[in-house]
Write a structure and sequence with these properties.
By secondary structure, the chain is mainly alpha-helical. Helices cover about 35% and strands about 10% of the residues. The protein has one domain. It is built from nine helices and eight strands. The chain has a two-stranded antiparallel sheet with strand order 1-2. Helix 5 crosses helix 8 (about 230-235). The radius of gyration is 20 Å and the shape is globular. The protein starts with a strand and ends with a helix.
Protein backbone atom coordinates (compact mmCIF):
# COMPACT_ATOMS: atom_id res chain seq x y z
CA UNK A 1 0.00 0.00 0.00
CA UNK A 2 1.09 3.55 -0.49
CA UNK A 3 2.11 5.78 2.34
CA UNK A 4 2.27 9.41 1.29
CA UNK A 5 4.73 11.64 3.13
CA UNK A 6 6.24 15.05 2.32
CA UNK A 7 9.57 13.40 1.57
CA UNK A 8 8.61 10.39 -0.52
CA UNK A 9 5.99 7.80 -1.34
CA UNK A 10 6.48 4.28 -0.04
CA UNK A 11 4.77 1.18 -1.38
CA UNK A 12 2.81 -0.94 1.06
CA UNK A 13 2.56 -4.66 0.51
CA UNK A 14 -0.53 -5.56 2.44
CA UNK A 15 -3.82 -4.16 3.52
CA UNK A 16 -2.16 -2.97 6.75
CA UNK A 17 -3.36 -5.80 8.94
CA UNK A 18 -6.87 -6.89 9.81
CA UNK A 19 -8.58 -5.31 12.81
CA UNK A 20 -8.26 -8.03 15.44
CA UNK A 21 -8.91 -6.28 18.73
CA UNK A 22 -12.23 -5.55 20.33
CA UNK A 23 -13.33 -1.96 19.73
CA UNK A 24 -11.96 0.41 22.31
CA UNK A 25 -9.36 -2.09 23.44
CA UNK A 26 -11.72 -3.92 25.78
CA UNK A 27 -11.44 -7.69 25.80
CA UNK A 28 -14.42 -9.59 27.10
CA UNK A 29 -14.55 -13.28 27.86
CA UNK A 30 -17.09 -15.05 25.73
CA UNK A 31 -19.63 -17.26 27.39
CA UNK A 32 -21.52 -20.30 26.26
CA UNK A 33 -24.70 -19.08 27.89
CA UNK A 34 -27.03 -16.32 26.80
CA UNK A 35 -27.13 -13.51 29.34
CA UNK A 36 -30.68 -12.11 29.59
CA UNK A 37 -31.43 -8.53 30.50
CA UNK A 38 -32.03 -8.46 34.23
CA UNK A 39 -33.75 -6.00 36.49
CA UNK A 40 -31.47 -3.67 38.44
CA UNK A 41 -30.07 -5.31 41.55
CA UNK A 42 -30.33 -8.85 40.21
CA UNK A 43 -27.12 -10.80 39.86
CA UNK A 44 -26.18 -11.91 36.35
CA UNK A 45 -25.51 -15.62 35.84
CA UNK A 46 -21.85 -16.56 35.85
CA UNK A 47 -20.37 -17.72 32.55
CA UNK A 48 -19.98 -21.45 32.15
CA UNK A 49 -17.14 -21.28 29.64
CA UNK A 50 -14.62 -18.95 28.04
CA UNK A 51 -14.56 -18.59 24.26
CA UNK A 52 -11.22 -17.90 22.59
CA UNK A 53 -11.81 -16.56 19.05
CA UNK A 54 -9.48 -17.28 16.14
CA UNK A 55 -6.76 -14.68 15.80
CA UNK A 56 -6.66 -13.48 19.40
CA UNK A 57 -3.21 -12.66 20.72
CA UNK A 58 -1.92 -14.25 23.91
CA UNK A 59 -2.40 -10.94 25.73
CA UNK A 60 -6.10 -11.00 24.85
CA UNK A 61 -6.42 -14.61 25.98
CA UNK A 62 -4.84 -13.83 29.36
CA UNK A 63 -7.22 -10.91 29.88
CA UNK A 64 -10.23 -12.99 28.88
CA UNK A 65 -9.32 -15.74 31.35
CA UNK A 66 -8.82 -13.17 34.13
CA UNK A 67 -12.30 -11.81 33.47
CA UNK A 68 -13.96 -15.22 33.15
CA UNK A 69 -12.48 -16.35 36.47
CA UNK A 70 -12.99 -12.95 38.14
CA UNK A 71 -9.28 -12.64 38.88
CA UNK A 72 -7.19 -9.48 39.25
CA UNK A 73 -5.74 -8.27 35.93
CA UNK A 74 -2.44 -9.95 35.15
CA UNK A 75 -3.16 -13.11 37.14
CA UNK A 76 -3.27 -15.46 34.15
CA UNK A 77 -0.09 -14.11 32.60
CA UNK A 78 1.67 -14.42 35.95
CA UNK A 79 0.57 -18.06 36.18
CA UNK A 80 2.93 -18.88 33.31
CA UNK A 81 5.80 -18.66 35.77
CA UNK A 82 4.68 -21.90 37.47
CA UNK A 83 3.58 -23.74 34.35
CA UNK A 84 5.55 -26.20 32.25
CA UNK A 85 3.55 -26.05 29.03
CA UNK A 86 4.26 -28.61 26.34
CA UNK A 87 5.55 -26.15 23.76
CA UNK A 88 8.01 -26.67 20.88
CA UNK A 89 11.62 -25.81 21.65
CA UNK A 90 11.49 -22.93 19.16
CA UNK A 91 8.81 -21.26 21.27
CA UNK A 92 11.23 -20.79 24.20
CA UNK A 93 8.32 -20.89 26.63
CA UNK A 94 6.16 -18.37 24.77
CA UNK A 95 2.70 -19.90 24.17
CA UNK A 96 1.73 -17.43 21.42
CA UNK A 97 0.24 -19.46 18.58
CA UNK A 98 -0.53 -22.44 20.83
CA UNK A 99 -3.48 -21.05 22.82
CA UNK A 100 -5.87 -22.83 20.53
CA UNK A 101 -9.13 -21.00 19.67
CA UNK A 102 -12.06 -22.96 21.10
CA UNK A 103 -14.63 -22.98 23.91
CA UNK A 104 -13.25 -24.08 27.28
CA UNK A 105 -15.49 -24.99 30.24
CA UNK A 106 -14.93 -23.19 33.53
CA UNK A 107 -15.82 -26.31 35.49
CA UNK A 108 -15.24 -29.98 34.69
CA UNK A 109 -15.97 -33.06 36.80
CA UNK A 110 -16.84 -30.80 39.72
CA UNK A 111 -13.49 -28.99 39.58
CA UNK A 112 -13.36 -25.28 38.87
CA UNK A 113 -10.97 -24.09 36.19
CA UNK A 114 -7.82 -22.17 37.03
CA UNK A 115 -5.58 -20.10 34.76
CA UNK A 116 -3.13 -22.99 34.80
CA UNK A 117 -5.74 -25.58 33.80
CA UNK A 118 -7.17 -23.40 31.04
CA UNK A 119 -3.80 -22.51 29.50
CA UNK A 120 -2.70 -26.15 29.67
CA UNK A 121 -5.93 -27.22 27.95
CA UNK A 122 -5.39 -24.69 25.17
CA UNK A 123 -1.81 -25.82 24.55
CA UNK A 124 -2.77 -29.51 24.72
CA UNK A 125 -5.53 -28.88 22.18
CA UNK A 126 -3.08 -27.09 19.88
CA UNK A 127 -0.60 -29.95 20.10
CA UNK A 128 -3.30 -32.47 19.21
CA UNK A 129 -4.34 -30.37 16.22
CA UNK A 130 -0.85 -29.46 15.00
CA UNK A 131 1.33 -32.49 15.66
CA UNK A 132 -0.72 -35.12 13.87
CA UNK A 133 -1.54 -35.58 10.22
CA UNK A 134 -2.21 -33.63 8.12
CA UNK A 135 -0.59 -30.53 9.70
CA UNK A 136 2.78 -32.08 10.57
CA UNK A 137 2.96 -33.86 7.22
CA UNK A 138 1.97 -30.69 5.39
CA UNK A 139 4.64 -28.68 7.15
CA UNK A 140 7.27 -31.26 6.23
CA UNK A 141 6.05 -31.28 2.65
CA UNK A 142 6.68 -27.54 2.51
CA UNK A 143 10.18 -27.90 4.01
CA UNK A 144 9.34 -26.32 7.36
CA UNK A 145 8.66 -27.45 10.89
CA UNK A 146 5.28 -27.21 12.62
CA UNK A 147 6.23 -24.09 14.57
CA UNK A 148 7.05 -22.28 11.32
CA UNK A 149 3.72 -23.41 9.89
CA UNK A 150 1.92 -22.00 12.95
CA UNK A 151 3.81 -18.73 12.50
CA UNK A 152 2.72 -18.47 8.86
CA UNK A 153 -0.84 -19.39 9.84
CA UNK A 154 -0.86 -16.58 12.41
CA UNK A 155 0.06 -14.07 9.70
CA UNK A 156 -2.60 -15.51 7.42
CA UNK A 157 -5.15 -15.24 10.23
CA UNK A 158 -4.27 -11.58 10.81
CA UNK A 159 -4.05 -10.52 7.17
CA UNK A 160 -6.77 -12.42 5.31
CA UNK A 161 -9.99 -10.46 4.91
CA UNK A 162 -11.99 -13.70 4.57
CA UNK A 163 -11.49 -17.44 4.75
CA UNK A 164 -11.48 -17.60 0.95
CA UNK A 165 -8.44 -15.29 0.88
CA UNK A 166 -6.38 -17.35 3.32
CA UNK A 167 -4.78 -19.65 0.78
CA UNK A 168 -3.77 -16.69 -1.39
CA UNK A 169 -2.28 -14.78 1.54
CA UNK A 170 -0.30 -17.89 2.46
CA UNK A 171 0.98 -18.09 -1.11
CA UNK A 172 2.14 -14.46 -0.95
CA UNK A 173 4.12 -15.33 2.19
CA UNK A 174 5.72 -18.35 0.51
CA UNK A 175 6.48 -16.48 -2.71
CA UNK A 176 8.18 -13.63 -0.90
CA UNK A 177 10.21 -15.99 1.30
CA UNK A 178 11.31 -18.00 -1.72
CA UNK A 179 12.43 -14.83 -3.53
CA UNK A 180 14.36 -13.54 -0.54
CA UNK A 181 12.00 -10.59 -0.16
CA UNK A 182 10.99 -9.13 3.22
CA UNK A 183 7.42 -10.05 4.12
CA UNK A 184 6.42 -6.42 4.81
CA UNK A 185 3.29 -7.43 6.67
CA UNK A 186 1.70 -4.65 8.67
CA UNK A 187 0.18 -7.20 11.05
CA UNK A 188 3.69 -7.92 12.37
CA UNK A 189 4.21 -4.18 12.99
CA UNK A 190 0.90 -4.08 14.85
CA UNK A 191 2.03 -7.00 16.98
CA UNK A 192 5.32 -5.32 17.81
CA UNK A 193 3.49 -2.17 18.87
CA UNK A 194 0.72 -4.01 20.75
CA UNK A 195 -2.06 -2.51 18.67
CA UNK A 196 -4.36 -3.17 15.73
CA UNK A 197 -4.82 -0.52 13.10
CA UNK A 198 -5.18 0.03 9.37
CA UNK A 199 -2.86 3.04 9.54
CA UNK A 200 0.82 2.19 9.51
CA UNK A 201 3.22 5.09 9.07
CA UNK A 202 6.64 5.15 7.51
CA UNK A 203 8.07 5.72 10.99
CA UNK A 204 6.31 2.53 12.16
CA UNK A 205 8.16 0.52 9.54
CA UNK A 206 11.50 1.68 10.96
CA UNK A 207 10.93 0.52 14.54
CA UNK A 208 13.57 -1.68 16.16
CA UNK A 209 11.86 -5.00 16.67
CA UNK A 210 12.38 -8.62 15.60
CA UNK A 211 8.73 -8.43 14.45
CA UNK A 212 9.46 -5.63 11.99
CA UNK A 213 9.03 -7.57 8.77
CA UNK A 214 9.88 -4.46 6.76
CA UNK A 215 13.41 -4.33 8.16
CA UNK A 216 14.06 -8.02 8.84
CA UNK A 217 14.06 -10.96 6.50
CA UNK A 218 12.21 -14.21 7.02
CA UNK A 219 9.46 -15.07 9.46
CA UNK A 220 8.95 -13.26 12.78
CA UNK A 221 10.49 -15.10 15.76
CA UNK A 222 7.10 -16.31 17.05
CA UNK A 223 3.51 -16.46 15.83
CA UNK A 224 1.70 -13.12 16.11
CA UNK A 225 -1.65 -14.54 17.25
CA UNK A 226 -3.40 -17.84 17.81
CA UNK A 227 -4.63 -19.13 14.44
CA UNK A 228 -7.59 -21.38 13.79
CA UNK A 229 -7.83 -24.51 11.70
CA UNK A 230 -8.65 -22.74 8.43
CA UNK A 231 -5.54 -20.60 8.67
CA UNK A 232 -3.46 -23.67 9.51
CA UNK A 233 -4.79 -25.50 6.48
CA UNK A 234 -3.93 -22.51 4.30
CA UNK A 235 -0.40 -22.40 5.72
CA UNK A 236 0.35 -25.96 4.62
CA UNK A 237 -1.75 -25.85 1.43
CA UNK A 238 -1.29 -22.38 -0.07
CA UNK A 239 -3.25 -21.64 -3.21
CA UNK A 240 -1.27 -21.89 -6.45
CA UNK A 241 -0.30 -18.48 -7.82
CA UNK A 242 2.56 -16.05 -8.43
CA UNK A 243 1.18 -13.20 -6.28
CA UNK A 244 3.56 -10.95 -4.37
CA UNK A 245 1.18 -8.17 -3.31
CA UNK A 246 -2.37 -7.81 -2.06
CA UNK A 247 -4.68 -5.10 -0.81
CA UNK A 248 -8.29 -5.13 0.34
CA UNK A 249 -9.66 -2.15 -1.56
CA UNK A 250 -13.02 -2.48 0.19
CA UNK A 251 -14.87 -5.25 2.02
CA UNK A 252 -15.17 -8.28 -0.22
CA UNK A 253 -12.67 -6.91 -2.73
CA UNK A 254 -9.14 -8.13 -2.01
CA UNK A 255 -6.85 -7.94 -5.03
CA UNK A 256 -3.79 -10.13 -5.43
CA UNK A 257 -1.15 -9.52 -8.07
CA UNK A 258 2.46 -10.20 -9.03
CA UNK A 259 2.65 -6.92 -10.93
CA UNK A 260 3.97 -3.97 -8.95
CA UNK A 261 2.36 -1.36 -11.21
CA UNK A 262 -1.03 -3.07 -10.92
CA UNK A 263 -0.62 -3.17 -7.15
CA UNK A 264 0.13 0.57 -7.15
CA UNK A 265 -3.14 1.19 -8.98
CA UNK A 266 -5.01 -0.99 -6.49
CA UNK A 267 -3.45 0.88 -3.59
CA UNK A 268 -4.42 4.21 -5.13
CA UNK A 269 -7.98 2.96 -5.30
CA UNK A 270 -7.76 1.78 -1.70
CA UNK A 271 -6.55 5.20 -0.56
CA UNK A 272 -9.40 6.89 -2.43
CA UNK A 273 -11.89 4.51 -0.83
CA UNK A 274 -10.50 5.23 2.64
CA UNK A 275 -10.61 8.99 2.01
CA UNK A 276 -14.22 8.79 0.85
CA UNK A 277 -15.20 6.77 3.92
CA UNK A 278 -13.51 9.23 6.24
CA UNK A 279 -15.31 12.13 4.57
CA UNK A 280 -18.70 10.42 4.79
CA UNK A 281 -18.14 9.65 8.46
CA UNK A 282 -17.65 13.29 9.38
CA UNK A 283 -20.72 14.75 11.12
CA UNK A 284 -22.62 17.33 9.13
CA UNK A 285 -23.15 20.75 10.65
Amino acid sequence: MYLNTPSRRTIRLTRRGRIALIAGGAVVAGTAVAVPLLSPGKEQPKPTSVVIPEGWRASQVYEAVDKALALPPGSTKKSLEKLDLKLPGDAEGNPEGYLFPATYPLERDGKKATPESLLSAMVDTANKKFNGAPIAAGAQRNAMNVYQAVTIASIVQAEAASSTDMGKVARVVFNRLERGMPLQMDSTINYALGRSTLRTTEADTRIESPYNSYQRMGLPPTPIDNPGEEAMRAAINPSPGDWLYFVTVKPGDTRFTADYAEHERNVTEFNAEQKARAASAKPTK
